[in-house]
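Notes from the 1:1 (GR / supervisor)

We went over the backlog. Supervisor wanted to see one worked example end to end before approving the batch request, so GR pasted a single chain during the call. The sequence is below; no edits were made to it. Supervisor asked that the structure be written out right there so they could see what the output format looks like.
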Amino acid sequence: MREWTARHWSVAALVSAVVALVTGVVTGLVPNPLFTRMIEAPWWSYPVWIVSAVLSGLLVATYLAPSAQSEAERTRDQRRNVVGAVLSFLAVGCPTCNKLVVLALGTSGAITWFGPLQPVLAIGSLALLGFALRARLRSARVCRLSGAGRP
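Structure output shown during the call:
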């Protein structure tokens, strides 16, 4: 893989911080006056929150480098990015604070059905983000080895 420049690391750090801040505030993991959790966050929410933010930042930074991916592969990876980010948001959010879940399942259904499903969503989100990052890094490596993207 081509060495990352300071620009790559700066973008990765900035995007990670923004994703962590937005997700943390909206899900109530970061105490704030705008959003209050009705149910305390489980211990695993915090590592999932941070790891998903870091993976998202690294993924965005990979788009600064030339890639040997086809348009279909790029679209597939972008879908993984979005689905992974949405799943991580749902995984760390308060089950009874999610209006869509409460509307679909009711408050007791959100606690009984959606709450226990959240760790599965967390694992799925981290897996999707990890697969997308691996694919992007592999395509950057292929691009470097083939000489594509050179002026």
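Supervisor's comment: The radius of gyration is 18 Å.
Batch request approved.
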